[in-house]
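Morning. Coffee machine broken again, so started the prediction first thing and wrote up yesterday's gels while waiting. Chain of 430 residues, entered below exactly as on the submission form.
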Amino acid sequence: MNAPYSVSDYAQLVQRERVHSAIYTDPAIFEQEMARIFHRTWLCVGHEAELPNPGDYRATTLGRQPVIMVRGEDGQVRVFMNRCRHRGMTVCETETGNARFFTCWYHGWVYRNTGALQDVPGPAGYGADFRKDDLGLTPVPRQASYRGFVFASLAPSGPTLTEHLGPAAKYLDIFMDASPVGQIEVTAGVHRTRYRGNWKFVGMDGYHPHYTHRSVLDAWRRRKGGNMADTHHGDPFADESGNLTRDLGNGHVLLDFFPGRLAHLDRYLATLRQQPQGEDYIRSMFAAYGEARGRELLAWAGDPHVGIYPNLQLIGVQIRLVRPLAVDDTEVLMFPGLLKGVPPSINALRLRQHESFYGPAGAGSPDDAELFERNQEGLQATVEPWLHLGRGLNRERVEPDGTRVGLVGDETTQRGQLRGWLKLMTEGQA
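Came back before lunch.
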């Protein structure tokens, strides 16, 4: 097929049990992804907990468009285009920090952290009709939040955030409700991974850990106390584990480890009780949510392993944001989420679990980055361009709410993400 692609072309590229490799390698498709997905649907910008103080900010991008997420002096978190209203220069030049004002280095226009235009050099030169009130920083067309997760859309209209999230919202609740007060801290910094591969490789895949991460899994089994083995029991990726995959709709997917974790909850509670004040944490969860819901949340361990399409994933203790840079270039930002209202030992345990796999000293992220780069290299072979994604299709079931469910190693999640991709790439197109 040759670009530009039509709606019918995309329907041919993503089929029931196979996908054409062009969606990972064709720069023309990537350009259309930027326009139809990243410049139109809801994207997670970050979490309000990243900005605990008035003036705190983080500069990032929505697709290719520069934005600032900032907590204003009035306490409200807003997302603005990082662009001076005068000649278009960026007004925020550092990724994070604290500022009362953003100043354009070109001609000195000054904006408050609420977005209002504060000062313009030589205002008399603009005449009597010049109104600063009309020239503040431009807010993103749409902004909404759920449980502190800040989402923005560059499209002025479309589905609401509630409609976009659908049944996936409950898994954001699970992540947040690992805290007895339902709040987190995101102040432990960011771990970055950048790889030479397509952004769609970063997904919920329960089939690869047996092979890609075998050495890490073997190490977990040999260790005791405070490591990932205390939440992942036995072989959590085996078909016999009881763990599941779920396609939640709109491209959102889940690796559901809850069945296996609930079966071994007492072991995990024993690990918590070994921590200083660990018993206090357990009791506070029961007091906050009731014993039945408290036990359920403790079994989840704050780790829903959910992908909110297209750029947010909650894995382990981390908030993961995916930034596509080119068809074969992707940056992944990982922010450890610590819990409010818990003893320090519980957050220390969460950090050790993060470090044992995803953090700078872990093997998981380097494994994945190398895997994705080799994947991109292999996809350059186009003699037979079709990729098979049919594992578990023969046993996949559909629940009454429309959720598709497979075993933990089934490719239910990959198919779900591709259905979300196809919907966004063809929606509203002739």
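The mean pLDDT is 92. Going to sketch it on the whiteboard this afternoon.
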